[in-house]
Structure formats: C-alpha cells, structure tokens
Write a structure and sequence with these properties.
Layout lengths: L9 H12 L16 H16 L3 E4 L5 E5 L9 E5 L13 H16 L8 E5 L13 H6 L5 H6 L8 H8 L14 E7 L4 H4 L4 E7 L1 E10 L16 H16 L7 E3 L3 E4 L9 E10 L2 H12 L4 E2 L4 E11 L2 E2 L2 H14 L3 E6 L4 H5 L5 E6 L15 H19 L2
Parallel strand pairs: 3-4, 3-5, 5-15, 6-14
Antiparallel strand pairs: 1-2, 2-4, 6-13, 6-15, 7-10, 7-12, 8-10, 9-10, 11-12
Helix pairs in contact: 1-3, 1-12, 3-12, 10-12
Length: about 400
C-alpha cells in the first residue's frame, strides 16, 4: 500500500466539526464552550462516546485531561499523542482547539477503517482549560502536568461567579487520577488554525510550526498632576496623557528599528481620573512584545528599562514594571522535518513559521517531543464568531498529521 494514498474522509471531518459546534453554538454560528460549563461537559461525553465506538479506552487525569487510546502491537512503548482542547472563549469560533482534537479522532478512524494496527498506541487528548476564558490562566492543565504551574494554586482559580476550578472539576464528573497523566510519549502533535493572516496572504495550505515565540510584558506608569481643564495654561500643565502619548511615540520609533518580525502591542491603558474637565494625573499602560530571538527580546527590555524618569514637556514621572515573560519554545526538529516531508509527499504548499500565540504543545514540549501544524484562518480571524477555515484546508491539515502518525507508528 502506498502511504500517500491513505487520506482522511473530508466530508466526515466536516460533519464531525459541525456536530461538535452544536455544543455551545451561538446565534452567529460561533461557539461558547467555557471549561466545565454544561456545554463542555456534554461535548466531552460526546467525544468519549465516539472514541469508545472505535474500540478506544478513555481515561481522565486529576486535571480533567482526557486520553482516548487506540491500542498498538507494543502497548508497553510510549504512544504517539494527537491533541488540543475542546473549550472555547466567549463567542469564539468553530475551529479553535476542537480541530486539533477532531484531527486525532479522524486519524484513528482512518487507521481503523484501513485495518491498520499501529506498532505503538495512538492517543487522542483533550487538554482542559486551554483558553483560560473561565478560569485563569490559559493553558492551565498542560501547565500543571508539565510542572509549569502549581496544581494547588490552579484549583483556587475562580470564575466571575466565584466558582473555583477545583469545584467545577469535581462537579464535572471528569476528575480522574494523577497516575493517569500524560507522562511520556514518542510524540505530541497539535493541529491548530493559524489565528493570523500569514498563510492565507501567501496562498499556502500548511504551516509547519518551528516554535512558540518568546515574549515580555511591562506595565508603564506615567504620573502627572490633575488640575482644571479650562483654567490651567498649557505651559503650566503636567498632563500625564500627553506625556504618555509622547512616550509611546518614542517607544514605537525605537522598537520598529530592531527587527521587522518583532511585534509589540499596547493592549491596556487606564487614564485617571478619566473626566473630560480634568487634566489626567496618571496613565498606566501595558507594553507586550514577542519575537523568537532571545537577543531581540533583550533589546526590547533594554529600551524599556532605559526610559527617562520623566517624559515630554510636562516632565511627568515614568516608572516601568516587568509583569511577566516567557522564553521561546522550540519544537522537536525531527518532528518538524517529518511534518514537512508529509506536506511535500502529499503535495501541499507549506512554509516553516512561528507561533505568536500560546498553545498546549509549548508546555508539553518541555518533556515530550512535540510539534504543531497550522492551517489558514480566513482574514486571520480567531476568537470571534466569524472565525473560519475552509473545509478543504482543514482536511489538508489532518492529512499531514495522519501521514506523520503513519510514519511514526507503522513505517
């Protein structure tokens, strides 16, 4: 049998994704399926039933992560794992996360209907609370099983109604044993929509992800002096917002000189007292920057850390505080090459690329060889009801993962 002729059933993939979207489908054809909500619990049960129909065993660990296992010929050997998450953000899309889980399901379906028994087990994983939309932080469960987060602290995380993650986990019926955690594997593969415009803009079907980029986030506080907006002459003002605006212009000018692949965002800004008749006395804003090169991130930090103590003609005080950072996570080069080879063999145009967003694979990659595949997002949209990836591109992405799984488990 020529391995390139084993392809998934694209129509079945489409139908399955639409069926999963029914669990939390919104009026505008998006999805709201927060971690351990009624919708999430129901979709988990549905996922479990589909896996058991294929003869797979389904277990949960102490964080509610689900592992559906197709037995192989050598079940004492580390498995090949395919997975992502089933939870969504509020009014999110039909593809974010769930595509990666359904990928695993469709890979197993294809193997079963072709009579393929893998040498080692194949596991399809649903990782709990990747989005962090109900319980912060994001990638909570993969963070716990990889040792990045402390479980006892995560259990205390509460939603807007004061319900803790620990309570929701216990009431969900999906709390399993710690001994069931994913501890070792030959590979962890995650297919995800790009959530950006690059693949579509370059007319490419596949993105083979090399890394999840490093990032740093600072909070910058500019302090001036409030006074009456009508009676205070301009030269005598200490307007924190004007000073912040001057500071932001300087930051942009310096940072755009560093690297054309550097991205930076001022995502939050608070102005006090935020009254139209009062000169602002304080502005607090965040500056987040992302790049795969550690040295470039260091240069960003140097720019921020060497900000003047006062800004603009207003001579307002400036203070920068580092909130958090993360290092670039590079994926397993052998798996990256395998995904490239699969794309070439099937004939899909692809490119190597980086991920600016975080994914469960980045935490799991710290102890298991991991890699990711991206498929295009129409207009780069995600975390929105109009998030869209064509069914054809979904099918192509799953075929690439299927081919790599076959290479790892039977060839």
């Amino acid at each position: 049998m020529e391995k390139q002729k084993i392809l998934i059933n694209g129509e079945r993939l489409k139908q399955t994704l639409e069926l999963f979207a029914d669990f939390g489908r919104t009026e505008n054809n998006g999805v709201t399926r927060l971690a351990f909500s009624d919708e999430d619990i129901r979709v988990r049960k549905y996922f479990s039933s589909l896996c058991r129909e294929l003869g797979m065993t389904v277990t949960q660990d102490d964080m509610g992560n689900m592992y559906a296992t197709l037995q192989g010929m050598e079940n004492d050997k580390p498995p090949v794992v395919i997975g992502s998450h089933l939870d969504s953000v509020e009014k999110g899309g039909r593809f974010d996360g769930v595509l990666g889980v359904v990928t695993g399901l469709e890979v197993v379906r294809t193997m079963v209907e072709n009579g393929i028994t893998p040498k080692v087990p194949v596991v399809v994983a649903n990782i709990t609370n990747e989005e962090g939309a109900r319980f912060e932080p994001s990638m909570m469960a993969s963070g716990v099983i990889s040792g990045r987060f402390d479980k006892s602290e995560m259990l205390k995380s509460t939603d807007k109604n004061g319900i803790s993650f620990g309570e929701a986990l216990k009431n969900s019926g999906f709390e399993g044993k710690e001994e069931n955690r994913l501890k070792e594997a030959a590979a962890f593969l995650e297919l995800h929509i790009e959530q950006g415009p690059v693949l579509e803009s370059e007319s490419l079907a596949i993105g083979v992800v090399e890394c999840v980029v490093g990032m740093v986030c600072y909070e910058i506080e500019v302090t001036g002096d409030s006074n009456h907006a009508g009676t205070t002459p301009m030269p005598l003002r200490k307007d924190a917002l004007f000073a912040a605006n001057h500071l932001i212009s300087e930051l942009r000018q310096k940072m755009r000189q560093l690297n054309d692949r550097l991205v930076y965002t001022i995502g939050r800004m608070n102005v006090s007292p935020n009254i139209h008749t009062v000169i602002p006395n304080k502005v607090v804003f965040t500056l987040e920057s992302r790049h795969q090169d550690t040295e470039t991130i260091k240069q960003v930090e140097e720019i921020i850390q060497t900000l003047p103590e006062s800004s603009g003609k207003e001579k307002c005080e400036v203070k920068a505080t580092k909130l958090w950072d993360r290092d670039t996570v590079w994926f397993d080069e052998n798996l990256v090459r395998s995904l490239e080879q699969s794309s070439k063999m099937i004939g899909y145009p692809y490119k190597r690329m980086v991920s600016g967003a975080g994914h469960d694979a980045q935490f799991i990659s710290t102890y298991i060889p991991s890699a990711m595949v991206f498929v295009p997002s129409v207009n780069g949209k995600s975390h929105a009801e109009d998030e869209l990836t064509s069914w054809e591109d979904c099918e192509k992405g799953v075929n690439v993962v299927l081919q790599t799984v076959l290479d790892l488990t039977i060839n």
